[in-house]
Specification:
Elements (H helix, E strand, L loop, with lengths): L11 H19 L1 H37 L2 H11 L3 H32 L1 H4 L2 H14 L4 H7 L2 H22 L6 H9 L1 H13 L11 H10 L1 H24 L2 H27 L1 H10 L7 H31 L6 H27 L3 H26 L1 H28 L30
Helix pairs in contact: 1-8, 1-13, 2-4, 2-6, 2-8, 2-9, 2-12, 2-13, 3-4, 3-7, 4-6, 4-11, 6-9, 6-10, 8-9, 8-10, 12-13, 12-17, 12-18, 13-15, 13-16, 13-18, 14-16, 15-16, 16-18, 17-18
């Protein structure tokens, strides 16, 4: 079997730009899906049916986040420091086993809640269909190719899968009764990407290693703090739409959901670039890189991209949104501009979390995210009741701004505190042996 070595990538601006460009271009190519699907769905389904789709998708995104668990950071980092191809494969298959366990648990809870809550029960079939499509995409977690540093393949699969899904959407959604197909194609791209990627990497980059539940438990334990971060992000992202659907009406949910799609398009590209730079950030930290290869330069570059995206959305929203969405969505403009402001704020979250997580400071990022999510939920309900979609958008800005402040304070305190020597030995849950993927202690605080 021929294997491709995965080692540290080249430093400096060229390597950083190559990594970011590969993922960025792939995400831009994949951008064709939301560009075409959003106006198609708003026009074909109408405001009310589109609002139902937005609510269903928001709830199912919680399941997606549960299955991600934080592996987009923890698994990538473990693969980045793994000693050889066998160790990397062990990380891959133990993480996939953990993901499967999470999916089974999450689907059981989701369907039980959907059956019990009257406003969700009417769309029980949509939740079931969406859950089944999601499981097909679990074989293409973003962390896999990022950890293997196959970023060009990641970009290609991401773009091509979105194009295929878009064709399916155009061919199958023609009337409000086709909302089931709208949900299917929303979650189909990862499943399509898995079918593209695995025949390519199966015999070149991955060696079959039978996973054990002990290793899966270690994967869950290593990413547990990141899970709380991921859960908090899910609540911040999904709660406004769900809350508007419960306390207001599907029309307000549709207005917020349409505006959020613009922000999410930017977030999807920029957070994908940020996640892909985790191995490079680890390299920069471990080698104490300076200049264009320094952690500071990486952080400044990422935040500048978020700021440009947010400002662009604020500026173009007044003329672009009404033209783009069609009749019935004129009130989306101010909400979209507030979402643009939130995109700028989220750039602060992205850079601080990248920096802290690259140093294995998972607990600190999780604490900040959980506090911000709780505050966001507390202010969301009254603002959504009083001001509808606009109030929900402002609750997003305020919640994320609080997270940025907490992360900045934590980072400052950690930098000014003298590190205390700790036992850095990673052990598999349930026994005293070293984690098989860490052959020696790793100093995460270098």
């Amino acid at each position: 079997m021929t294997t491709v070595p995965v080692g540290p990538s080249r430093g400096g601006l060229r390597g950083l730009g190559g990594d970011a460009l590969a993922v960025g271009l792939g995400q831009l190519a994949a951008f064709i899906y939301p560009i075409v699907s959003l106006p198609l769905l708003t026009r074909v389904l109408g405001v009310s049916a589109f609002g139902r789709v937005v609510i269903v998708v928001a709830v199912l995104q919680l399941l997606v986040r549960l299955c991600d668990y934080g592996f987009s950071v923890s698994a990538v980092r473990r693969m980045a420091v793994a000693k050889d191809e066998k160790d990397r494969s062990s990380v891959i298959f133990s993480t996939l086993l953990a993901v499967a366990v999470l999916w089974v648990t999450g689907v059981a809870i989701l369907l039980a809640v959907a059956a019990a809550v009257p406003r969700l029960n009417n769309d029980f079939g949509l939740y079931l269909i969406g859950s089944l499509v999601i499981v097909g995409g679990l074989a293409f977690p973003s962390w896999l190719l990022q950890g293997l540093r196959r970023l060009r393949l990641f970009a290609f699969a991401t773009a091509l899968s979105r194009v295929v899904a878009l064709l399916g959407l155009v061919l199958s959604v023609h009337q409000p009764g086709d909302i089931g197909w709208a949900v299917v194609w929303q979650f189909a791209p990862p499943m399509i990407a898995a079918l593209i990627v695995w025949p390519i990497i199966a015999h070149r980059c991955v060696r079959w290693v039978r996973p054990s539940f002990a290793e899966a438990r270690f994967a869950l334990s290593d990413g547990r703090h990141l899970f709380f971060s991921s859960l908090a992000q899910s609540l911040i992202g999904s709660a406004p739409v769900v809350m508007l659907g419960l306390v207001a009406n599907p029309i307000q949910a549709a207005h917020y959901g349409a505006a959020e799609r613009f922000g999410n398009a930017g977030r999807g590209i920029l957070f994908a670039v940020t996640d892909a730079l985790m191995p490079r950030m680890v390299d920069a930290r471990s080698s104490r890189g300076r200049g264009l290869g320094s952690p500071t330069f990486i952080m400044i570059t990422i935040f500048a991209l978020f700021a440009l995206g947010g400002l662009g959305l604020i500026i173009v929203a007044p003329w672009f949104v009404p033209l783009y969405l069609g009749t019935g969505f004129d009130d989306v403009v101010p909400t979209t501009q507030i979402i643009g402001l939130a995109l700028i704020v989220s750039g602060g979250i992205a850079v601080f979390m990248l920096d802290l997580n690259s140093q294995h400071r998972y607990f600190h990022t999780a604490a900040a995210m959980v506090v911000g999510a709780v505050v966001h939920l507390l202010i969301l309900v009254p603002l959504a009741l009083a001001f509808g979609a606009i109030g929900a958008a402002w609750s997003l800005v305020l919640g994320e701004l609080l997270i940025v402040i907490i992360l900045a304070v934590l980072r400052w305190r950690l930098q000014t505190t003298t590190p205390v020597p700790i036992d850095l030995t990673h052990r598999v849950a349930g026994n005293d042996s070293l984690d098989p993927n860490m052959k020696e202690p790793i100093d995460y605080d270098r």
